[in-house]
What we know:
There is one protein chain. The chain has helices at about 55-60, 65-75, 80-90, 130-140, and strands at about 10-15, 15-20, 25-30, 35-45, 50-55, 95-105, 115-125. It is an alpha+beta fold. It has 2 domains: about 1-35, no CATH class; about 35-140, CATH 2.40.50.140. The strands form 2 sheets. Strands 4-5-7-6 form a 4-stranded mixed beta sheet, covered by helices on one side. Strands 1-2-3 form a 3-stranded antiparallel beta sheet, with no helix packed on it. A hairpin with a 6-residue loop joins strand 6 (about 95-105) and strand 7. The radius of gyration is 19 Å and the shape is globular.
Amino acid sequence: MGCPECKRKVGQERQGLFRCDFCNKSFSDSEVRITYTITAKFADSSDTAYVSLIGESGDQVVGVKASDFRNLREVQMASPDQLRELMNQPSYSYFTMIVRAKLDDYQGNNGGGDELKFRYQAVRIAPLDFKEDNEMLLKRLQMY
């Protein structure tokens, strides 16, 4: 759940009331933004990567707003199989993404030194438009 003003994570103060530590404001349950926080595996011809989808980028991939998904799960009491089917619909779909990579330092489990790992987050995502993408590639080829 996110703050309606700054979009940052909110914490629950008490039943039906959430607080944003960044804005220093409290919001009711109906005011808080319902968002996705998903880690999905994406692949192309060269490699695969696990990418975090937060907020609107999750909406784009799943194809259903997070608030509608919550309504389906909690109010309409959809079965786990129906929810799994909904989440698997975007499998093998094509997207154009702008991804931010961040190098993080993790403590090793074997008692050794620190380990460096990349963390990826989708900044912008949209369904792939083959015609537009091919036109852009042709323009690039004509430059040479």
